[in-house]
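Form 12-C: Joint structure prediction
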Amino acid sequence: MKTNAKPGDLVEVHLDRIIYEGVLLESPDSEKGIVLLKLGTGYNLGFNKKDILEIKKIQEVRIKEKKLELKKAPGKPNIAMIITGGTIASSYDSRTGGVHPLTTPEKLFRFYPELFEKVNIIKVEVPFMKFSEEMNPKDWQKIARVSEKLLNDSNVKGIIITHGTDFLHYTSSALSFFLGKLNKPVVLTYSQKSIDRASSDANLNLQCSALAAISDIAEVSIVGHASDEDNYCYAIPGTKARKLHTSRRDAFKTVNDEPYAKISEETIELISKYNLRNNRKIKPDIKFEEKIALVKFYPGQKPDILDYYSKQKYKGIVIEMSGLGHVSSKWIKKIKEICKKGMVVCGVSQCINGRVDGKVYSTGRKLIEAGVIYLEDMLAETAFVKLGWVIGHRKWNVKEKMLENIAGELNNRLEE
Amino acid sequence: MKTNAKPGDLVEVHLDRIIYEGVLLESPDSEKGIVLLKLGTGYNLGFNKKDILEIKKIQEVRIKEKKLELKKAPGKPNIAMIITGGTIASSYDSRTGGVHPLTTPEKLFRFYPELFEKVNIIKVEVPFMKFSEEMNPKDWQKIARVSEKLLNDSNVKGIIITHGTDFLHYTSSALSFFLGKLNKPVVLTYSQKSIDRASSDANLNLQCSALAAISDIAEVSIVGHASDEDNYCYAIPGTKARKLHTSRRDAFKTVNDEPYAKISEETIELISKYNLRNNRKIKPDIKFEEKIALVKFYPGQKPDILDYYSKQKYKGIVIEMSGLGHVSSKWIKKIKEICKKGMVVCGVSQCINGRVDGKVYSTGRKLIEAGVIYLEDMLAETAFVKLGWVIGHRKWNVKEKMLENIAGELNNRLEE
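Section 2 - Result
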């Protein structure tokens, strides 16, 4: 195998009967006999060196180490960023195949120069770097504590939080409850496609997030693509967002509500009511009871799972029930039992869209009698987060609080 | 309180400051001091007799006991129906507030005369009458056994099965696997709004189901409203359907696939490929392992839940993971353990739309190593049903079968 190509170059790999084009990667030490190629689709292919006739260089890699001028421009509004991980804050090194976190304004500037045309990023906080599936309520609390500092800093006009997509809607719910009525925007954003790919959604999401962060929308919102086109974003209420696609750019949808705004690179079009920017001092309320569970009911499921959580001394459970909020009538007795023992049982719908109503059928009425709190049109994920937060406050009346609309999680605007 | 109105009449109930209009209901024996009124919205109101000044009759109820002529019309195709319960097969008696099942052709004719203009219903089977949340795998087996008889009856051109909406998509999946390659259409249908209400969706759903049942689409499908308008339906593949709204007529959506057809009262417009009507003899394969579970992962969730199912001797578990198919890396060791003990662990996405891919990130690759079978774009509910069916066959290679597209549950047509 002969070649003058080096890692990072665009090459053709010639095999016996087929030619692959892609970027040559550095082979890891453990795989010395293997040549790795990153295809245009973003996937990597591995070849045995002995099968390769030739690696032909098409275009040499040029490594630009742009000199950064990250001066504060006096005309531009100042914002702060909180980086927590996820695809949006990871750059992929085409030479090594490794992933590097973007955790300083300089590094962010290299990938997202357009963002800096709109705003000055005067602070970047990195409480941790995690994939969102590794997060837990303690991480939500950490983000809230970092946010507190920035929200009460009068030099900061708004906050952008970058986050892995997968469980972002849990974090946005947690911040909605923890931070309370806000004084300025808290904007969570993400990317579905790696930022080193031409098709990345990160750039538009960040630019729209910047507009949201300097807007008057003093709410926790998720800002991301409104469609699979790369033209505008929605600002989705933090308690009404759900990831509904594994890979599309418009993974997040507003459920049982409307977005706050439609945002393009240049404009914000307001859609629904929100809390206005103000001078309130922010004091997060981050109490949280971690002994709570989320259970999705399925046909034939035994109610014994409730015993399991009861024995483990869980304090509350959210059940994803049927459409209007039913489970098998075989569950009623057990639910009554655990409610009597002090566990809180909440009912939401696994249909995602619409609302539960226990009063329509007799099974629902019996479940209400047994103690189930029906959470109207609240999303299961939001209900889970809210339940932990409410139970965390020992003196609160749990049922009353769960049914009080605290952060837009219960919505009566879209009644049919 | 004076009145000449009787239950069933349209009345005005005059209170001190307000007048309610609705249909007077018969008060149950237990509530003699109460007057019950069914409002136009379908909701019931109860009044204390002593608060009522007058009940004014607006229109007398006319009880039509239409003489039925249910002769077979020689020109029309013959179909069979299987009634299993749900709103669509329940008529509401406005006089008593009670609900009566429609379990004979005569009773069905009274409510759905248009259905009988299209087809002869030569058989009605009623294996049981249940709300769908009460069903379990044994009920799916019962429906399959009843279907077998009708599918192998050359006088029957197709089958309509009426069913409660809530867990209909589990049943449609089960029948898709149990019945195998079909010889004629098996159409499941439902209604979201009670048939005695002007806004009921049952009539259109049944008429479209009749067209589907006499069509060439020899598949298990769910036929129901395509939008909230009352104009046409979709025939949705049985393994690719999910209830995604609690109350709208178009509660069921096709996920990661296309409908077989768009159907109005008069026409069928074919949309995607299907198995053609034929003369195959049908022999259902209804083996099913009931010791399977469906678990939705949430942030911070302890892997101990896997021990619980392992100790209870469960044979398989479907985990609703993150977008591409991740759980916390704290779960990996435990998953490896239970897989070694012989439990089957499958991964699907809680995003509903899109597909899992364990190969993109290292957590996914470790989960694959630990033994997780990634089920591509399969719906969680379909995966649950398929897993029970596959494990039910002791001699099958579970992984191979789970990844084999048997009834349209794995779809490669819609790759992005």
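Section 3 - Comments
The domain at 292-402 of chain A is CATH 3.40.50.40 (Rossmann fold). The longest strand of chain A covers residues 19-24.
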